[in-house]
Design goal:
- α21 packs antiparallel against α22.
- The strands form three sheets. Strands 8, 9, 10, 11, 12 and 13 form a six-stranded mixed β-sheet that branches. A five-stranded mixed β-sheet has the order 2-3-4-1-5, sandwiched between helices.
- It contains 29 helices and 13 strands.
- Helices cover 42% and strands 10% of the residues.
- The termini are far apart.
- By secondary structure, the protein is of the alpha/beta class.
Length: 766
């Protein structure tokens, strides 16, 4: 029997939200308005800050009666069509109705709007990918050529209010380039202006350099893919999780134990948002891409995702009432919202954020009969679907929950073991703090189920001599699954007070307010692994941080470094180095590379460790005098720790590291590139630069080398990048030497290359 609407007052909004989830067309803009209208819900409308500047620039061309070609570029899901629909239906822009938008074709011409300056004729292309009709292409080409002529000739003296032509095209980066090349494939008929435009468009698409395109007075290009930064993601979180429709849930009979409301509360936690924004920045800096569509999918799945293809709904929650009301699990210290393993609602948001509830590699624990027997079932039904959801694959690349340390897992298992010797090394204060976190955040029975699995493993080993028996393997599998889920829960709930700064993520350049900084000592833990745990003494003064510096009395150290639970142990150090660089730009911008030198001394521990890692990669030597202050360019280029490393000439192949960013020649320094990522750069006047892009992956590799945590076989991709960087520096040094030998450099250049130094009493260079 269907639940009365009065008992499910928010079912329409939850139904609308579920449409953004797995296997839904509502992610695409053309379905959003209609579905919301059918349910009586106001559709989400994310007016991101950068979009306001795009709209202002577009409307400026309209107000000035300036014929313009406007490109809305980006990738699928960046919101190009959504933004174009806003322009179409905005009374202050084009001013047509939503119904008109749904009726007009993909390529629509002659949309006339009257302005104070005259009549504006709009041509709109919703998706350039689908613009295949020859007649439409011919008409579009003629319109663009008309725009070019109007800009070359200027306004007509006889008719200053001449018709203004505005063409707005939305399309993916690659398709825009392909379509325009096809539109103007006959170069003999191209005007010079069109040829310049095609060339500038290629530079923009291939090199991400829009300076030539912006120099054209009749072209606007707005990149939708750069609109989604940390502040915009926070706005999406706030708009979705703070929607007015959630107030309807206050009148629901199931509100006290509703998993939808529980998951919403988890996603509203500031530390969860902080962690997610950190993951977002790491993933983007590694070369992946987030979209508004991805964010809606992720949020909907985190709140409503289940262990089946079916999303949670109000009626499903009502039907699962007996499972969802508070109940105890044997051995559990909490009695709040624990669901049975065969429930459709057994998943939790800490797993759902990564799409693990819909993973082909995730195993469900299915109960049999009264729950005494268990079996393992692979959810292979999601294998093909998983390939179409890149957001989850990108998030899983950080491997959250898949790594740990013996100390962390011993702490988790401390109260599950009857062996006192196994728990002897675990600080009881740590276990107490861990239990406090579990009591606050484990509404899913993970800790209790882990204890059950641990008990079954013990019984299986006692009752069966075969360690490879099905019962033993099943228990081991269950333990690992619950451990990984607990790792993910801890990752989002254990705070790092020194480095978890939400304001710094939202404003990394420190433009709105200076972010608080911690003064770490120079004596960092270079060359040694640091324990992830900090023993909690009665007096916290002078306690070492996980970075090896000194923490003030006010800075409470973390229970453990949360990124120890991921494949990126040094992720927070990477973010600190990058954000320090963004706040300490010095000098002007190099117009050839659009990069800017930075003073990196505020993150000296991280920068120094990075140089130690570089030297260990370049030389294969673990101990090297001055490894943080000089870069040694040896003859060996195999990055093989067993190979000999020979330094041909200490004066030329031992390069000074400049952390202040002021050196201009024959030095290594840090620079911020055009994408606001940090580069390690070797400068040599008149001979170009050698540049190493510091992605989170490469940073992790070099910091691991510096700490001695990994071998030289960490990553062939990293090896190749470092080998190319080293070879480039060596080639530039050799070229400079050859120029001196051949007399290519004149006397003045030679004098500028002379280094004057002082010797101390021991004969060493001071």
């Amino acid at each position: 029997m269907a639940q009365p609407v009065s008992e499910l007052p928010n079912q329409n909004f939850i139904s609308y939200l579920s449409k953004y989830g797995l296997n839904s067309n509502l992610q695409f803009d053309e379905y959003v308005t209609k579905s919301a209208r059918d349910l009586g819900i106001q559709a989400f409308n994310f007016d991101l800050p950068l979009l306001a500047s795009y709209r202002e620039e577009i409307m400026s061309a309209v107000a000035n009666n300036h014929s313009t070609l406007i490109l809305l570029t980006g990738r699928a899901g960046d919101g190009k069509t959504h933004f174009l629909r806003q322009l179409f239906t905005d009374p202050e822009s084009i001013g047509h109705s939503t119904e008109d938008w749904e009726r007009v074709p993909n390529c629509c011409f002659d949309i006339n709007t009257q302005t104070a300056s005259g009549t504006v004729t709009f041509t709109l292309i919703k998706d350039f990918t689908n613009n295949d009709k020859p007649a439409d292409n011919e008409r579009l080409r003629n319109t663009i050529e008309q725009i070019v002529r109007q800009n070359e000739e200027g306004p007509s003296k006889s008719d200053p209010n001449e018709h203004c032509q505005i063409v707005i095209i939305a399309g993916n980066h690659g398709k825009i380039m392909e379509r325009f090349q096809n539109l103007f494939s006959d170069s003999s008929k191209q005007s010079q202006s069109v040829g310049t435009f095609i060339s500038a468009l290629e530079t923009y698409m291939l090199e991400h350099d829009d300076r030539q395109l912006k120099a054209l007075p009749w072209v606007q290009s707005h990149d939708m893919s750069v609109c989604l930064g940390a502040p915009e993601i926070k706005k999406i979180f706030d708009d979705v999780l703070g929607s007015k429709y959630w107030q309807n849930c206050e009148h629901c009979a199931h509100a006290s134990y509703c998993p939808i409301l529980r998951n919403r509360a988890v996603m509203r936690d500031e530390l969860v948002l902080t962690r997610f924004l950190q993951l977002h920045e790491l993933i983007v800096d590694n070369g992946q891409h987030f979209t508004v569509r991805n964010m809606m999918l992720l949020l909907a799945n985190a709140i409503l995702g289940t262990n089946t293809q079916e999303a949670m709904s109000c009626s499903l929650v009502a039907a699962q009432e007996n499972h969802l009301k508070p109940q105890a699990i044997e051995g559990s210290s909490i009695h709040d919202n624990i669901v049975e393993p065969d429930s459709l609602l057994a998943s939790n948001p800490f797993d759902n954020i990564f799409g693990l509830n819909a993973s082909a590699n995730k195993y469900e624990i299915m109960s049999q009969g009264s729950g005494k027997g268990f079996k393992r079932k692979s959810t292979l039904a999601f294998a093909s679907q998983e390939k179409t959801i890149p957001i989850f694959a990108d998030l899983r690349s950080i491997a959250v929950g898949q790594f740990s340390t013996k100390l962390i897992d011993d702490m988790i298992l401390a109260d599950h073991s009857n062996n006192a010797d196994e728990c002897a090394d675990i600080n009881p204060d740590l276990c107490a703090q861990y239990q406090e976190i579990i009591n606050k955040h484990d509404h899913y029975g993970l800790n209790a189920r882990l204890k059950q699995a641990y008990h079954r493993l013990s019984q299986g080993l006692l009752n069966n001599d075969d360690v490879d028996s099905e019962a033993v393997l099943e228990a081991l599998h269950n333990i690992q699954e619950h451990l990984n889920s607990l790792h993910r829960l801890l990752f989002f709930t254990v705070k790092h007070p020194q480095l978890d700064n939400l304001q710094d993520l939202l404003d990394p350049k420190g433009q709105s307010a200076a972010a608080p900084s911690i003064n770490f000592s120079r004596s960092s833990s270079l060359g040694r692994a640091v324990s992830p745990f900090i023993r909690r003494n009665a007096n916290p003064l002078g306690r070492s941080s996980t970075l090896g510096g000194i923490v003030s009395a006010k800075a409470e150290p973390p229970l453990f470094a949360p990124y120890m639970l991921t494949g990126y142990t040094f992720a927070l150090q990477y973010l600190k180095l990058k954000h320090t660089a963004m706040k300490h730009v010095i000098g002007g911008q190099d117009q050839s590379t659009l990069s800017r030198p930075v003073n990196i001394k505020a993150a000296l521990d991280e920068a120094s460790a990075l140089m130690v890692g570089l030297n260990r990669a370049f030389t294969g030597l673990m101990l090297l005098h001055g490894a943080a202050d000089f870069l040694y360019i040896t003859t060996t280029n195999k990055l093989n720790p067993m190979a000999q490393s020979i330094l041909l000439d200490r004066q030329r192949y031992c390069v000074k590291v400049d952390y202040e960013g002021i050196a201009r020649d024959d030095a290594v320094r840090f620079e911020l590139n055009a994408n606001d990522l940090v580069d390690v750069v070797f400068h040599q006047a008149g001979n170009g630069n050698s540049r190493l892009h510091l992605t989170p992956k490469l940073f992790e590799y070099l910091m691991s080398l510096a700490s001695g945590k990994v071998s030289m076989s960490f990553s062939s991709e990293c090896h190749n990048e470092l080998a190319a960087f080293k070879a480039s520096i060596a080639a530039k040094i050799s070229k400079r030497s050859d120029e001196f030998d051949r007399g290519v450099l004149d006397v003045e250049q030679m004098l500028h290359s002379v280094l004057v130094c002082k010797l101390n009493a021991y004969g060493d260079i001071a």
